[in-house]
Amino acid sequence: MTIPSSARRQKYLGDKGLVALITFLSAFVPLSTDLYLPALPGMALYFGVSADLANLTLILFFVFFGAGTLFWGPLSDRYGRRPVLLAALSIYTAASLGCALSGDIHQLIAFRIFQAVGASGAFAVATAMVKDVYESKRREPILAMVQSMVLISPVAAPVLGAILLRFVSWRGAFWALALIGLLALLGGLALVETIGERSGGSLLGALGRIFRVAKNPGFSTLLLLFSLPGISSMAFIAASSYIYINGFGVSPQVYSYYFAANAVGMISGPMIYMRVSRRLRRRSIIAASFGAIAGSGLLISIFGERAPWLLAAALLPATISASLVRTPATNLMLEQQRGDTGSAAALMSFFGIFAGSLGMTVISLDWTDPIPVLGMMNLLVGLASGGLWLLIGNKSYVVAVPERYLPRGSARR
User: Where in the numbering of this chain does the Major facilitator superfamily (MFS) profile domain appear (predicted)?
Assistant: First the structure.
């Protein structure tokens, strides 16, 4: 793997260490949610609250995570990636300790909000660093590798969380997250600044650059389109423990295996894309992926209620396809912007999380059976995304990136 000069200047981390840190920071969302998913039903019983109220620890995390990226991303363009990263990780680590020590559900929800704000800074900086360090031709393989490594955490985290529950209470999951935050903070201290040219102006001016990026029609159109799969993907994450543990009656340990088996599809998605993209056009791959999500929705609606393994199998095409699309989608959106990478990364994260929070809210309503709802959500998301892609797939900003938005020194694809 050819590492550019900006990566070679990492005195302490080195080239592989930089990729490892970017991967670790990018994994903060699944680590911060999936690790304690097996404990959610038991947590509701511990505090004596409804499942809806316990689910706010998950839903509000994503809401404030998305909002937080809008703050941290522009700040990292103005003040640099490293200081923003250190501040965000300090908040995350302290909030994780607060979660572990919470005395009631309301305290836990409050600390989860602060935890989300800290995690959003780590994630926004990680995405921006990919653009800082790697030029267009090298970015897609790096994105695929990072996203595949990141997606290991949804496999490992629920299993680890279920194992922790055998020895400690739900608080143990948050002690583990505090340790993860501390390790990431040590990595941030070793980081050498990656941004080449910082934006000028005041703090308010830096935050206002969000609107400048949003006015880029190519970026904003793709942003809207590629945020849609997050609706159905995050709906499953919010409902999975209740569906498997309360609905099918499996143990938390068995649930973690079903969740991990489906998450294997997430890991394989980016690597499948890199292989298939050698033979097929990017536009065709994306269109086929949206079709697979719709087809998966039909399978869930027909077979999902019959057995837990049938639900996992029916969901697998949607899981793989949503993961597969992320690599070309991220690169396509990053290619639309010449500067303000942190702001672009912030908007990408915010809209993805907003869509996910919408799906989690819908699936958390008082449904008699959430499985048909999950199936319908995948069907509608697949059809809507596929229809929009057919409308814009031949546009100039998809086929060829506009010159005024190209990063300096990069070539037209």
Answer: 18-396
